[in-house]
Amino acid sequence: MILYISHSFFDYEAGNLCRLFFPYEKLKTVTDLNEAKDDNFIVKAFYNEETTTVSVIKDNTASEKIYKNDNNKDKEYNVTSAIYKSFCEFCSYYPSWGMLTGIHPVKLFIEHIDKFGKVEAERIFKEEYFVSEEKLSICRKIASVQKPSTDKLEDNDFSLYISIPFCPTRCSYCSFVSQSIEKHKKLIEPYVEALLMEIEETAGITKETGLRLVTAYMGGGTPTTLNAEQLKRVINKVKECFDMSFCREFTVEAGRPDTIDESKLLALKECGITRISINPQTLQDKVLENIGRKHTAQEVVDAFILARSLCFDNINMDLIAGLEGDTLETFIDTLDKVVKLNPENVTVHSLALKRSAFLFHDEDVKSYHQNKSLAEKMIDYSFIKLQESEYLPYYLYRQSRMIGNQENTGWAKINTECEYNIYTMDETHTVIACGAGGVSKIKDPYSNRLERIFNLKYPNEYLQRFNEMLERKKEVKVLYEQFRQWLH
Question: Tell me, what's the pLDDT at 401?
């Protein structure tokens, strides 16, 4: 797929629009039309002061549309909105999120409310970004639910993320940096030892910087690939090194039921963990088999019942809409069974096919993945069912190549929202990450500036270059000194 834009180059946003409508096309942006003449898929946008003309040529089918420019808008908006409208007509497809391609639409909505007021923010979303009323309604609800959590944040608050990048097996859709314990079990103990040192070093830096911990989250991977003793060592190290007096929640993703047993759950309970996840993704045995899971739906239910018997009173369950072999009927069956279990939180993801996932290279799955109407019906049912069952949407984010151009939405019973998810997904404050693959997001509390500090991705790299990880963490203090200096 060739993209050409005359006069000026808005290739990032225009390229995102190309991927929105044609997620599996390889995209190349050119500055010379001669480079495009032999390609069978060409998008050309010609801008002048009065109009933007968009030509789409694909497989000998051509379309050319001329759009009058809005004089109140900049050139980038006129060009990208013209490309969006042209794609809609060419594909006979009108995405429910309109021309929004970013990860954090609710964050953008809240920023618009702060800048323009609620009425104008809603008008912009509907009339300028072409967002549907259904998606705008979800933005309204989430913004309202998030407000009590964001209002209580102080300038020196932060959240802590602990990465455990190991899983029993790698699911076919997974794009995260997680290592199968079948092949990498020998790395777990040295990884835990290094992680304990990074936690201790990070705690010292946050104390020197004057930060206070308000939420903590251990994710992965699957943290419960660690044994009970290792889990206790990591969690107790956090509690030993950080001042926990302001920490309102501590989540551990128990995740895969084939890693959950009574000893691990008792260890989590003993350590004061306030929230866990037990993530089936589906309660259909055939679909579990398709995605490479080695457990049954009944094992998910058994793990949930065991956690309840041990008095865990804030449990999340993750589901994925659009998995290979799932139908609308089986998705409905799964969601109904989950709601019957009555977890405090339910997170409904839309399948996203990333290049690093095994499924990305399966042409049959790609064809299935393009069934937009099926994904829309699944997500629509989840919105109806969960709201009827007294869940409220409380956070939302999007990814590229999501089936049906949908979203991932977290739902919670009243007063059980995971504040960590609110803060990290909408980049409300600083999140400091420890462990392989962790990304610290250092948020200036006095502006919109956000800086990232990356840990190395893979456990073996993390171990080999561990001292480098510790050096990178020192940047946290440097950045906060800059933030405070600029304030004065």
Answer: 79
Which uninterrupted H or E stretch holds 43? Answer: strand 41-47
Instruction: Report the DSSP beta bridge partners of residue 396.
Output: 409
Answer yes or no: do 156 and 135 share one domain. Answer: no
The span from the CA of 33 to the CA of 15, in Å, is: 17
Q: What is the CATH number of the domain that holds 42?
A: 3.30.160
Q: What is the mean pLDDT of residues 23-40?
A: 83
Strands (E), 234-313: 249-255, 275-278
Within-domain flag for 260: yes
Q: Among the residues of 210-296, which ranges form H helices? A: 228-241, 262-270, 285-290
Contact present, 215 and 242 (Cβ < 8 Å): no
- Please list, in sequence order, all residues whose beta carbon lies within 8 angstroms of the beta carbon of residue 150, skipping any fewer than 6 positions away: 422, 423, 428
Contact 354, 323 (CB under 8 A): no
Range of the domain at 115: 105-139
d(CA 316, CA 359): 26
pLDDT digits (tens, 9 = 90+) for 137-186: 999 999 999 999 999 999 999 999 999 999 887 665 665 555 566 667 89
For residue 97, is it within any domain?
A: no
Q: Helix or strand or coil: residue 269?
A: helix
β-pairing, 315-321 vs 275-278, is parallel
